[in-house]
Amino acid sequence: MVDLRGRVALVTGAAKGLGAAIVAQLAAQGADVAFTYLTDARAAKELQKKVRGLGRRSAAWAASAADYKLAQKIVADVHRKFGGLHILVCNAGVATSAPLVKMSEAEWDEAIEVSLKGSFNYIRAAAPGFVQQNCGKIVCIGSINGLRGRVGSASYNTAKAGLLGLVKTAAAELGRHNVNVNLVAPGFIETSTQVNTPELVRDLVLKECAIKRLGQPEDISPCVAFLASDDARHITGQIIKIDAGQYL
């Protein structure tokens, strides 16, 4: 267990799934947690209730991560409501599946705008405050498929691959200001978006994994909390794969 008491965190794309697990984990470790979500207001309210039940403050905004100006406003709102910001988790993303020869421009653009530009938007919004206070933790959620090719998801893979360059550059630029920036790259994770994943695909994933189990959001969130803590103060610019050995 790491100690995040006295810290304020902002998590993007967090009403459900992995984002919600990250919010709950950070709150359980003592952080006040703000988050964004896209459309599910009911799930967002339930997550806020859960955070407050842990004795922590919470706030939520309906927002697309692709909106640069809204990212600036939300980060400013977090500072105003909570008195600061110490942790940023860029989790928002979309996955579109289509072979390159059939992928539409809109499908490509959406993945890049949300998964890659969205992370830039929030890092850009949060970084000046981190520089001013001379501390901060940034964790981006990537994917092992951003580190390898995967048939049928070029836009998603490309966006997640781009996060690697963003994280390494941010780590190099912000390190002098005591800001840690890292990338967590999960393998297959069972969330609501995977409900309709065919059993054949699940079987193929299990065959790739050294440890024969499919990942859960709670397999990822403790690592995010660790990277957001002072226990990880000497770790920056790194990719941490959490995938039961799927990438091996």
In short:
This protein is α/β, with parallel strands linked by helices. It is 45% helix and 15% strand.
Describe the overall structure.
- 45% of the residues lie in helices and 15% in strands.
- It is built from seven helices and seven strands; from the N terminus they run βαβαβαβαβαβααβ.
- It has helices at residues 17-28, 41-53, 68-82, 105-133, 154-174, 199-208, 217-227, and strands at residues 8-11, 32-37, 58-62, 87-90, 136-141, 179-186, 239-242.
- Strands 3-2-1-4-5-6-7 form a seven-stranded parallel β-sheet, sandwiched between helices.
Order of helices and strands: EHEHEHEHEHEHHE
* Helical percentage: 40-55%
Instruction: Report the β-strand fraction as a percent range.
Output: 5-15%
User: Tell me about the biggest sheet?
Assistant: 7 strands, parallel
Work out the number of β strands.
Answer: 7
Unreliable runs, pLDDT <50, ≥5 residues?
none
| Ends distance | 28 Å
Bulk shape: globular
Give the class from helix and strand content and strand pairing. Answer: alpha/beta
Per DSSP, the total helix count is 7
Radius of gyration: 17 Å
Q: If you average the pLDDT, what whole number results?
A: 95
Strand order of the largest sheet: 3-2-1-4-5-6-7
How are the SSEs placed, and which strands pair?
Layout: E1 8-11, H1 17-28, E2 32-37, H2 41-53, E3 58-62, H3 68-82, E4 87-90, H4 105-133, E5 136-141, H5 154-174, E6 179-186, H6 199-208, H7 217-227, E7 239-242
Parallel strand pairs: 1-2, 1-4, 2-3, 4-5, 5-6, 6-7
Helix pairs in contact: 1-7, 3-4, 4-5
